[in-house]
Amino acid sequence: MNKLSILLCGAALGAMATVAVTHPQLLLVGHARAADSDAYKQLNLFGDVFEHVRDDYVEKPDDSKLVAAALDGMLTSLDPHSNYMDAKSFQDMQEQTSGQFGGIGAEVSAENGVIKIVSPIDDSPAAKAGVLAGDSIIAVDGVSIQGMTLEQAVAKLRGPIHTPVTLKIQRPGKTDPFDVKLIRDIVKVASVNSRKLGDDIGYIRISQFTEQTFEGLKKSLDKLNKDIGKDKLKGYVIDLRDDPGGLLDQAIAVSGAFLGRGEVVTTRGRNPDDVQRFTASGTDLTGGKPLIVLVNGGSASASEIVAGALQDHRRATILGTRSFGKGSVQTIIPLQGDGALRLTTARYYTPSGRSIQAKGIEPEIVVTENVPADLKGEDETHGEAGLKGHLANPGDDKSEEGGSSAYVPADEKDDTQLQAAIKLLEGTQKSAYFPPDTKAAIPN
């Protein structure tokens, strides 16, 4: 099942580590290949088909839409994360990665023609109106969106701020659909939220990796140190569950905040010499306090980079269920006409040389949540391995693993993963994996 994620009124961010740069040399690749006679023949074939459609289709087509569809079809045939963005989609993506955009404020997915809520954003119109993860949107303002593509459905949900919109929701466990009325607004995504757990544990939730994430993390650490006290603070729970990823540079900066020094991630492109090594070179902003990182089937890409780096360096204990398994990096290449190309340009590897592509991060301590009966089966992600056309794992054994549960209880008391982390940090529960064995860490 091909599952795509998108933030309403924003561009696709889910399961992505993105390098937002312009590479002029990449823009020249098409010209170099066009010199090959076979490539010219294929381009001529495309031209022939394009002209037949323009001249003979039963209705006059829109040339720009034809070209955009052809470009997107070419790119999506490569892997699930490469695609063409027109000017509007590119602008939406830029707004989203900045951490502020307009909309109702929810992440959704398209599964077999059904638009589902993955999660409402904290303090967004959707969250305030009571929209829940797992809800299906079957109509917008009385117009059915069943069978629409994700982009078509999002277009229906978009609109000027302060305008009303009515969603018809089908909720698991309820027989009849019901209406939810809300007001569109500017959605400011606080990608980092923090609070005290009890009197002596810091909790930091990173929901996605935007341009503001590292700064938000530093502010959260400062606040927790002030509220709890450095001497009293026993450690931190870093919650990366259902974090779909985001910007690569932010994942590197966040990893460095806990590592201080050492390799974070290596990216390897198609050519043997196309290798980049990213390292942390600052200081551990936590002062070496114990860390437990929570992951689940919704933790993808940039969040997996952080979890993998902390795991390999034995800086943190990973707890939860297997992560999504998104082990590739996309480069955003601006194009003429204000559009952009999102192209998978590299695989990434954890500091120990592991590729987690279509495998995911395996926690040292596996803890599952108690999923309500009406949500069982709905909580499972199929992971990268379940996406049609995904890149194969480059390892010798080529083994792959599917995703895992992405369910997180709303009530902290019912959150078995979080409660297990608290008990480990408090010392009321023991594990051979906590604290981690630093002797097994890879050398810095």
Automatic annotation (TrEMBL):
Basic and acidic residues bias: start-end ranges: 376-387
Superkingdom in the source lineage: Bacteria
Gene3D superfamilies assigned to the protein according to its UniProt record, in alphabetical order: 2-enoyl-CoA Hydratase, Chain A, domain 1 (3.90.226.10), 2.30.42.10, 3.30.750.44
Name of the protein described by the UniProt record: Peptidase S41
Signal peptide, first to last residue: 1-17
Record-linked PROSITE patterns: PDZ (PS50106)
Region feature Disordered, mapped onto this chain: 376-415
Family from the record: Belongs to the peptidase S41A family.
Pfam short name (any one): CtpB_N-like
PDZ domain: residues covered: 90-158
